[in-house]
Amino acid sequence: MEKREKLYEGKAKVIYTTDDPDTLIMHFKDEATAFDAKKKGVIKNKGVINNRISSRLFKFLEEKGIKTHFVSELTEREMAVKRLDIIPVEVIVRNFTAGSISKRLGVEEGIELKTPVVEFCYKSDELGDPFINASIIKAFGFANQDEVRRMEETSLKVNKLLSKFFDERGIILVDFKLEFGRHKGTLLLGDEITPDGCRLWDKETKEKLDKDRFRRDLGKIEEAYEEVLNKVMG
Ligand code: UDP
Questions:
Q1: Ligand 1 centre and the CA of 176: distance in Å?
Q2: Residue 197 CA to ligand 1 centre (angstroms)
Q3: Could you give the CA distance from residue 132 to residue 8 in angstroms, rounded to a whole number?
Q4: Band of the pLDDT at 211, cuts 50, 70, 90?
Q5: Strands (E), the chain
Q6: Phi–psi pair at 206, nearest 5 degrees
Q7: For the chain, which domains are there?
Q8: What pLDDT does 36 receive?
Q9: Test site for ligand 1: of 113, 177, 200, most ligand atoms within 8 A of the Cβ
Q10: pLDDT tens-digit map of 36-89
């Protein structure tokens, strides 16, 4: 596969076209942002680590029957993915309270939820990724009824699979964000699954092993990402 021109550059990734119109190359950068890009920094080697973690997790999910955009891991920082028409919705799944749900509901972090929570946000940094619901998604034509239902069902299935996967490796999957898109009419899981978009806590110490270390200036960021990589590969 031959790399062609840059299609899009985001906060943590660059997307390139290839000689195959159905396949893109996703390049992982070391840049990190938080608070809708108001905070910026670099996490050394993050791109390499996230490419490996995401590739491993997509392969695992594919083995379990989840349809994703993952094609193959190409180089240290690059993976081949199926070209998607991205749905501008972030699906957030939560198992424990943390972050925005703790603020919104005035509860401490780390409370186990009785059932997993699925939330939808509209992908827009300018607006601060506002909270939306299925009705808004359908009314604005971001996705149809069937797609909304499948995004929710798939996200809950991914949650079950990944919660077990991480638990077996000594990590609690507190919450995470997924994105979906259409490829030739089929709904596929897209984007990435990495410590940038998941909250991962050490099961024993409850130490944070994710982007909250960057958001909250907790230090030892690279070490945390490295630890997740080692555990995910183990
Ligand atoms: N998340 C993300 N991108 C976003 C918003 C959230 O990857 O634009 C992830 C975040 O890393 C966390 C989960 O989604 O694992 C839930 O985030 P939350 O709604 O608590 O928002 P935050 O506290 O990050 O503002």
A1: 7
A2: 6
A3: 25
A4: very high
A5: 3-9, 13-18, 23-28, 31-34, 39-42, 70-75, 78-82, 85-86, 89-96, 112-122, 131-132, 171-178, 180-183, 186-189, 198-202
A6: 65, 15
A7: 3-82 (3.30.200.20), 85-220 (3.30.470.20)
A8: 84
A9: 177
A10: 889 999 999 999 999 999 999 999 999 999 999 999 999 999 999 999 999 999
